[in-house]
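[step 3/7] inverse_fold.run input=structure_tokens len=233
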């Protein structure tokens, strides 16, 4: 039993659990709301006119804020879509963290990804189509691609403690390297699925949809990882 305690201790040192953040103040909530308004405006203009045909002034005008407000939150016009791209990662990590304690990690990941990328209503479908427009715009804009890759890297880092907790609940005794590999594979599965879907004309649901592609990517990328298997009884 001492060896088991030792393994858990190492995992906690190498994969620290972030403290639960305090509730946001009214001012902070307003700032986040303003950032999302700007992000939505930027996404709409990038999709319609491309990054080259869009200015920071146009984004600020579409969002109904002063240009100085835009630059208070964002360094560049491409950087403005960051909050919008981050929302999807936050939602799917929350779904994963809320998985049933008895669920195995593979099932928990597939279920969370499928739900996060589903389109049960028109609002969700519109969000996916907006993401498609952004990814298509990013294909010819290195600065916009850099924002996309940065958001994915940050999402992967935030995913590690969630994966570690689920692996520990499953009794898998996963090591930090295995946790990191699983988080990287899960993040890349979603990234590759969305990028592949954006290049196609597939619908938001059904074969070739983001959820369908992401689950397929997960199976391919994570099938042989030890962290995904239950320990022998």
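[step 3/7] decode complete -> sequence:
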């Amino acid at each position: 039993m001492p060896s088991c305690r030792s393994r858990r201790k190492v995992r906690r040192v190498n994969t620290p659990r972030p403290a639960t953040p305090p509730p946001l103040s009214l001012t902070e909530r307003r700032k986040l709301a303003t950032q999302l308004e700007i992000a939505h405006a930027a996404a709409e203009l990038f999709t319609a006119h491309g990054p080259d045909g869009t200015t920071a002034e146009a984004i600020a005008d579409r969002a109904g804020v002063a240009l100085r407000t835009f630059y208070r939150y964002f360094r560049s016009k491409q950087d403005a879509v960051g909050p919008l791209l981050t929302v999807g990662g936050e939602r799917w990590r929350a779904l994963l963290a809320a998985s049933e304690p008895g669920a195995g990690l593979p099932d928990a990941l597939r279920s969370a990804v499928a739900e996060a990328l589903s389109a049960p209503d028109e609002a969700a479908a519109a969000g996916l189509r907006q993401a498609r427009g952004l990814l298509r715009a990013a294909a010819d804009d290195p600065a916009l691609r850099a924002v996309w890759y940065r958001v994915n890297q940050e999402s992967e880092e935030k995913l590690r403690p969630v994966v570690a907790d689920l692996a520990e609940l499953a009794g898998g005794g996963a090591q930090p390297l295995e946790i990191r590999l699983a988080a990287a594979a899960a993040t890349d599965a979603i990234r590759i699925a969305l990028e592949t879907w954006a290049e196609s004309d597939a619908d938001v649901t059904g074969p070739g949809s983001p959820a369908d592609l992401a689950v397929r990517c997960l199976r391919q990328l994570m099938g042989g990882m030890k962290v995904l298997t239950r320990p022998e009884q």
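[step 4/7] annotate
Confidence is low (pLDDT under 50) at residues 1-16.
The chain is about 70% helix and 0% strand.
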